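Need a sequence for this fold. Nothing fancy.
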């Protein structure tokens, strides 16, 4: 604990954490110093086995994807050149699902991880935005399902329930607010848009 002596008494200042930092993580350190993440925070997901995936998109039009093992060793790194890029990631059952935007195209990259090693990597087109400025989001769901919501029209959002890379049920509510954000409530089994 930390104390400071002030005005003839000891004043409590706080506690030191019970753990000490092991190392600084910098999974996107491979980017050029001229790259700028344009005020967007990189997205992060972790598998139950400890592997970590970080994705980010730069102003220079590059999507960075990094996967680290549970002990912090980089086991995968890739960059993708894209127009007006954005990227998000979720983790489900030993696989990272990276969705990145290139202009109006949303592409899914599945990165399977087993025994601390990257296995199968597959890319597939998953959706098309109405225009490059449109909004989108992803969220985990129940079991192996996940959700994608994206602006598919000027005042229309498409919400897709996806298993692996297969789009299942979709809904297209009309919305006047173009901003899209998803949250899956695993207690009540509800998807919030």
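Here you go.
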């Amino acid at each position: 604990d930390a104390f400071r002596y002030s005005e003839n008494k000891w004043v409590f200042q706080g506690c030191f954490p019970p753990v000490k930092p092991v190392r600084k993580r910098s999974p996107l350190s491979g980017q050029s110093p001229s790259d700028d993440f344009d005020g967007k925070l990189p997205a992060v997901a972790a598998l139950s086995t400890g592997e970590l995936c970080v994705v980010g998109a730069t102003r220079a039009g590059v999507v960075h994807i990094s996967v680290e093992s549970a002990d912090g060793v980089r086991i995968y790194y890739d960059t993708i050149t894209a127009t007006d890029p954005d990227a998000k990631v979720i983790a489900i059952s030993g696989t990272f699902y990276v969705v990145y935007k290139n202009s109006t195209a949303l592409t899914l990259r599945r990165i399977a991880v087993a025994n601390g090693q990257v296995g199968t990597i597959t890319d597939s087109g998953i959706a098309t935005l109405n225009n490059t400025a449109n909004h989108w989001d992803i969220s985990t769901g129940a079991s192996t399902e996940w959700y994608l919501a994206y602006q598919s029209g000027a005042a229309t959002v498409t919400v897709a329930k996806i298993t692996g890379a297969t789009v299942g049920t979709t809904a297209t509510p009309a919305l006047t607010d173009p901003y899209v954000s998803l949250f899956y409530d695993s207690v009540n089994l509800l998807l919030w848009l």
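For context: The radius of gyration is 20 Å.
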